[in-house]
Design goal:
This protein has 525 residues and is of the alpha+beta class. The protein is 52% helix and 19% strand. Among the domains are: 108 residues, Beta-Lactamase; 153 residues, Alpha-Beta Plaits (2-Layer Sandwich). It contains 13 helices and 16 strands. Helix 1 crosses helix 8, helix 2 runs antiparallel to helix 8 and helix 10 crosses helix 11.
C-alpha cells in the first residue's frame, strides 16, 4: 500500500489535472445551476406552503378565541337573566313560607307577582302552585279554570326532591299563551318541611333568541343553550323540533366538557354533521352550557381565496424561472457535450498515468510500499530531520529460515506468508507518518519519523511479538512457527549521516540478531 504522503501527492496531481480541464468545470456549473434552480423553486414552494398553513391556523385560532369570548358573554347574560328571576322566586318563597298561601294572602301575592313581572322584561310570568299542582296565583291575575300543572317536569322534580335550591327545567310551551319559555322554579315547604307547592318563573326563550339573532356568526353558525343533562334548551337558528333533543353522545359532552368547564375546539356537529369552530362555557350557578360555533368552511372561505391567489402567483414565478433556467441549462449542456468529446481521450490518458503511478510505488505481492518509494521517502525524511534536528529510526525485518519455509511449503504458501507478515507489520504502525515497505525478497523495512532508538525498539518488539502470536506454522524452525529478526538504527542529525549509512547500521544490527539466535530485536551501536 503506498504511503499516504505519496498518495496525497498523487491525489493533488489528479485534482489539479481534473480542475484544469474545461470538462469538469462545465459539468460542475451545469450541476450547480440545476441545484440552484431546484433550490429556488423548492424554497418558493415551502414559503408558500408555510404562509398558507400559518394563515389557516391563525384564522382558525382567531375564530376559536372569538367563539370563546362570545360563549363567555352569552353565559354571563344567561346567568344574569336567570339570577334575576331566581332572586324574585327566593323572595317569594320566603314570604309564602312565612305568611302562608291562605285566602287572605292571595290578593297580596297576586299584586306582588304582577309587580315583579312588570319589573323584569324577560319574564313571561310568575306562578304559584299548591302541593297538588293547582294554580294558586299568577302574575297575569287570570287563573284558568281547573288548571293543574302537577304533570310538569319542574313540579315533579320539586315534589320528589327536598333540595331548596333553584331548578332550571327543559324548555316548554306555556299552556296559557302557547309561547316557548324556560322554567325556573323553587320548592315551597310547609313549616314541618313537607312539600307545600312550587313557585315558578318562566323566561321567554325569545329573550335569549333576540340577542342570539343579533350576533353575526355566519350563515351556518349556531348558538345553543344546553341543559346539564345534555338536552337542547334553545338553538339558533330556532327550530321547535330540535328543542329537547339529547346531545349526550355529541363531542361537547363526550370530549370537551370532561376536560373543563370552558374551552374551544374544532368538531363535527352531532345535530347536523357540520364541522364547526366552537367555544363553550358552563353558566355559573345554573345547570346550563352555552355553545357557540361558526362553520369551518365559512371561516376558511377568505383564506382559500387568498391561498388560491398566492398559489397562482407562485406557480407563475416558478414557470418563468423554470423557462429561463431550462434555456440556460440547455446552453451549458451543449457546451459540456462539446468539451466532453474533446477531452475524452485526455481523460483516458490521465487514468492510465494514474494507474502507472500507483504501480510504480506499490509492491504487487504485499501491497506495501516498494523499494523505490522506500528510497524516496527515506531521502525526504532525512532531509526533514536535518532541517528540524529531529530523530528518525529505521527497522530492518527479515523472516527467519525463509528458505527452509519455501522448500517445505512451496513458494505459493511462502507468498501468502509474506502477505500475512505485511498485514501484521502494517497493523502495528499506526501513525500516519510511518512507512512500511518491502525491501526485497523476505526482507521488510519500516521508517519511523520523529522516533529515537527507544521508541523504535518498542515498535520492533511489538511487531515481533505480533508475529509470534499469529502462530504461522513453520516445522523447520526452532520455534515451530514463523519468527522474525529485526535490526534497529536511528539517524543522528548532527552526524550528517546518509540514507545508506542508516540502512547499513540497521542491516548490521539485523545480522547480529540472526547470528545471535534469531527471533530478536537488536539496536545498532
Amino acid at each position: 500500500m503506498p504511503h499516504q504522503s505519496f498518495a496525497a501527492g498523487i491525489a493533488k496531481v489528479k485534482e489539479a489535472v481534473f480542475t484544469s480541464s474545461e470538462h469538469a468545470v462545465t459539468n460542475d456549473r451545469v450541476q450547480a445551476a440545476v441545484r440552484f434552480l431546484l433550490a429556488v423553486c423548492l424554497s418558493l414552494m415551502l414559503v408558500a406552503l408555510w404562509e398558507g398553513w400559518s394563515s389557516r391556523q391563525y384564522r382558525l385560532h382567531d375564530k376559536e378565541v372569538a367563539m370563546a369570548n362570545l360563549a363567555q358573554t352569552l353565559s354571563s347574560q344567561a346567568q344574569a337573566s336567570i339570577k334575576q328571576a331566581d332572586t324574585v322566586l327566593f323572595s317569594l318563597v320566603d314570604r309564602i313560607e312565612a305568611g302562608g298561601m291562605g285566602p287572605d294572602q292571595l290578593p297580596v301575592l297576586k299584586r306582588l307577582l304582577n309587580a315583579q313581572r312588570n319589573e323584569l322584561s324577560q319574564l313571561h310570568g310568575l306562578f304559584i302552585y299548591d302541593a297538588s299542582g293547582a294554580w294558586i296565583a299568577d302574575s297575569s291575575g287570570i287563573l284558568p279554570a281547573h288548571a293543574n300543572n302537577s304533570d310538569r317536569e319542574y313540579f315533579i322534580y320539586h315534589r320528589d326532591h327536598p333540595e331548596r335550591g333553584p331548578h332550571v327545567g327543559p324548555s316548554i310551551q306555556s299552556r296559557s299563551t302557547g309561547e316557548w319559555v324556560l322554567p325556573v322554579s323553587r320548592r315551597i315547604n310547609n313549616p314541618d318541611g313537607s312539600f307545600a307547592g312550587v313557585a315558578l318563573a318562566t323566561i321567554y326563550l325569545d329573550h335569549f333568541l333576540k340577542l342570539y339573532n343579533s350576533i353575526d356568526i355566519g350563515n351556518n353558525g349556531v348558538i345553543n343553550l344546553i341543559s346539564a343533562d345534555a338536552r337542547i334548551v334553545l338553538r339558533r337558528p330556532f327550530n321547535e323540533a330540535i328543542i329537547g333533543t339529547s346531545v349526550a353522545n355529541g363531542p361537547l359532552f363526550t370530549q370537551l366538557l370532561p376536560k373543563g368547564d370552558s374551552g374551544t375546539a374544532t368538531v363535527r356537529s352531532y345535530v347536523d354533521g357540520v364541522e364547526r369552530v366552537v367555544g363553550f362555557r358552563r353558566v355559573n350557578d345554573y345547570p346550563l352550557v352555552v355553545f357557540t360555533a361558526m362553520n369551518k368552511e365559512e371561516v376558511l372561505a377568505s383564506w382559500r381565496q387568498e391561498t388560491l391567489m398566492s398559489t397562482i402567483i407562485v406557480i407563475s414565478l416558478m414557470t418563468v424561472l423554470g423557462a429561463i433556467g431550462y434555456r440556460f441549462i440547455r446552453l451549458m449542456k451543449q457546451q459540456h457535450r462539446i468539451q466532453h468529446e474533446l477531452l475524452g481521450t485526455q481523460d483516458k490518458l490521465l487514468e492510465v498515468n494514474r494507474t502507472l503511478e500507483l504501480l510504480a510505488l506499490e509492491d504487487a505481492l504485499t501491497g506495501l510500499a516498494n523499494r523505490r518509494q522506500f528510497d524516496l521517502f527515506t531521502q525526504a525524511e532525512i532531509g526533514r530531520a536535518k532541517r528540524g534536528e529531529t530523530h528518525l529510526a529505521l527497522l530492518m525485518i527479515d523472516v527467519d529460515h525463509s528458505k527452509r519455509f519455501n522448500d517445505r511449503y512451496g513458494h505459493l504458501v511462502g507468498d501468502e506468508c509474506l502477505r500475512n507478515l505485511s498485514r501484521i507489520i502494517q497493523e502495528n504502525i499506526r501513525r500516519p507518518g510511518d512507512l512500511a515497505a518491502r525491501f526485497g525478497g523476505e526482507e521488510f523495512a519500516v521508517v519511523l519519523p520523529s522516533t529515537d532508538y527507544v521508541g523504535a525498539f518498542i515498535v520492533a518488539e511489538k511487531i515481533r511479538n505480533a508475529v509470534l502470536l499469529a502462530h504461522i506454522e513453520h516445522k523447520d524452525s526452532d520455534q515451530g512457527i514463523v519468527t522474525i529478526s529485526i535490526g534497529v538504527s536511528a539517524y543522528n542529525p548532527k552526524a550528517e549521516e546518509t540514507p545508506d549509512a542508516l540502512i547499513g547500521a540497521a542491516d548490521k544490527a539485523l545480522y547480529i540478531a540472526k547470528t545471535s539466535g534469531r527471533n530478536m530485536s537488536v539496536i545498532a551501536n
